[in-house]
Amino acid sequence: MIRLSLSVAAVLIVNLVLGVVLEAQVVEPHFHHAIEIESAPIINRIPLETRQIRRIVEQPDGSLLITEWETGSLIRLSPEGQPERIAVGLNQPSGVVSSGSGEIFLTLYGAGIPKSGALVRLDSMGNLVPLIDELNGPSDLVMSPQGDLVFCEYSTGKVFKLNADGEQELLTDRVTSPTALAYDNRGTLYIASRTEGTVYQLLFDGTLERIQVGLQHPSDLFVHRSGLLIILNSQTGRIMAWNPETGKTQSYARVPAETTCLAFDEDDNFVIGHWNYNFLMRITRHLSVPCPHCEERIPLNLVPPATTGSPDTSL
């Protein structure tokens, strides 16, 4: 790993980019080590008018699925930044997940009124198909590694699994006010409790363990490709990273308070959505430039100045 100041890095990047246009020459085998640049992250506000963003999901093609609580809309934002409202009239969409076949599944909170929530499917033709009615404040939805739909009820504290055959199974009813879910690739389900300020892990064998306490309204969870569990505290805007191997937690970033949701892309950059101020922001900390000698790209990582390797960044 190489670390450079921003001014030195700028000169390097210019030389690398200019080198691409030079006549190709035969070169010895070489490497593409990541270069760390002491710099604040690049922050871009995404130009999209929204109302109370509740969830963001990054798609494999780089598009975003965004749920609007107030308007009851599901928006698809293309990689080029073109928005499309692909569903409207939803009763407070609280969770969203997509399948590889183009189907999208949503939970509808239904104002938290008993038996007013629902789990629905939006097929590839844009048709809305009810799957389960009369739910009690469903607040999030994820897909398990096996392809089952897993959702939680805020009002009852229950977490259910719905398999491909339509069979519904209660996974646990011991988490108060569950508000966010996430799966890792080992099959561990993470559940955040807003009112308790806690996060639990539900192991594959059914064991429920509390792994985080003292949080400030955890509103979203995400399992990073490194295996870290990313936890968003909406009340303070603090984003934390919990390591399941060591059990240790570190600060990952700070974003504006009342940020309610986040999503990461394949380059480990992330997007946040703000509930009150109705904005989307993309935070970029990982870039790349073309290698002047081959078709590979050289990673560039933006790191806070005067740190000792901590990834914490304040925005």
Task: Describe the model.
- The protein has one helix and 28 strands.
- It is mainly β and 315 residues long.
- It starts with a strand and ends in a 12-residue tail after the last strand.
- It has two domains: 1-41 and 286-315, no CATH class; 45-284, Neuraminidase (6 Propeller).
- The protein has a four-stranded mixed beta sheet with strand order 1-2-28-27, covered by helices on one side. A four-stranded antiparallel beta sheet has the order 3-26-25-24, with no helix packed on it. Strands 4-5-6-7 form a four-stranded antiparallel beta sheet, with no helix packed on it.
- β20 (218-223) and β21 form a beta hairpin.
- The longest helix is centred in the first third of the chain and has 15 residues, at 6-20.
- Residues 20-24 have low confidence and may be disordered.
- What would you say the CATH architecture of the largest domain is? 6 Propeller
Question: What is the percent of helical residues?
Answer: under 10%
CATH superfamily of the largest domain: TolB, C-terminal domain
Q: Unreliable stretches, pLDDT < 50, 5 or more residues? A: 20-24
**Overall tally of domains:** 2
CATH domain fold name of the largest domain: Neuraminidase
Overall residue-averaged pLDDT value: 89
**What's the alpha carbon Rg, rounded to whole Å?**
21 Å
**Order of adjacent strands in the largest pleated sheet:** 1-2-28-27
Q: Tell me the β content.
A: over 45%
Report the total helices: 1
Largest sheet: 4 strands, mixed
Topology pattern, helix = H, strand = E: EHEEEEEEEEEEEEEEEEEEEEEEEEEEE
Number of strands: 28
What is the CATH C level class of the largest domain, in words?
A: Mainly Beta
Structural class: mainly beta
Distance between the terminal alpha carbons, to the nearest Å? 25 Å
Shape: globular
Oligomer: single chain
